[in-house]
Amino acid sequence: MLERLEIESFLVLADELHFGRTAERLHVSRARISQTIRSLERRIGAPLFERTSRTVRLTPLGRRLHAEVEPGYRRVERGVARAQAEARGIGGVLPVGYLGSAAGEFLMDAIRAFGCLHPDTEVQIHETQLSDLLGPLRTGRVDVLVTQFPVAESDLTRGPVVLRVPRMLAVPANHTLAKRHSVSLEDLARDRVFACSGDVPDYWQKHFAPACTPSGQPVRRGRSASTMQETLAMVGAGQGISPVGADVAARYTPRGVVYVPFTDAEPVEYGLVWRTSGETARVRAFVAAAAELAALPEGAQAVGTEPEGAQAVGTGMEGAQAVGTEPEGARSLGTGMEATGVRGAGMMPAEPAEPAASASASASASAGDR
Question: DSSP of 86-137, one letter per residue?
Fold first, then answer.
């Protein structure tokens, strides 16, 4: 069994490729690092680093060992850090993800509200992708996710709806539907509807691109796309149509694409999801702050009925609602959104809106910022 200093010395030296800087980071002497690496190489039975008077680099064996050891060690580090933070209470680091610009804007407001209550917690923001809808939660990259419903997974807890967005249909500009002021779900049978590629649950796929219309007409499947931009590019190229949220219509106006509002489609709903096994005081506090922010007098219903396998939010969670119950409310984006290429009563062309404030995996925002 490798000792902790051996693992840390190996990983940090592989990162720095410099004995002096490695010693500084680990707060030990340079001689101690050299001794530890030699001991590790004797234990392995072969050199892990090639050393010259000027350079240090991994051997092929060293690279393979690093690829095997580094991910597991980082998971252990994160687990210990989260356990320590949980023992201390709410304070610490909370990685939160979002899918889409509307969810991103809501998340910025939620972080500010949460920061007023818990200024000692740092919220790290991660943008997730449609092609890996729930992967960031399961890998531990994020602890909470603001994403599109429905979500019906046995290992995940589905929280309250926090945002509603009217649904629209993206069609090619020369399509017959582009001349209409509105469309219905029956119009999905008029062309191929794009599917999502990647790790997307089948029930989620069918919710947004059903296999048939309400009257039973079959809906033809088009090509699969891994991002919204890719979907819209194919729509603009005349290869099919796609239901989207009104937030997409307001922010993305590629050439050759027209958005037409639905008259009978349920709005796109966003809500909070987290790992059932990863529910902590910090997660509960953030969900409560987000639910309170979203609350409106008229209330909000979750998509459909309670899905099988979804976990119920505990009744003791302040501000969060049980799955299948009616939360106090959810924000709505009005139907009067203005965007170039949008058709509908009362909608006038305007300059495309600025993209939502996004944050990559490397970005972080202090919850205390306001």
Answer: HHH-S-EEEEEEE-SHHHHHHHHHHHHHHHHH-TTEEEEEEE--TTBSSHHH
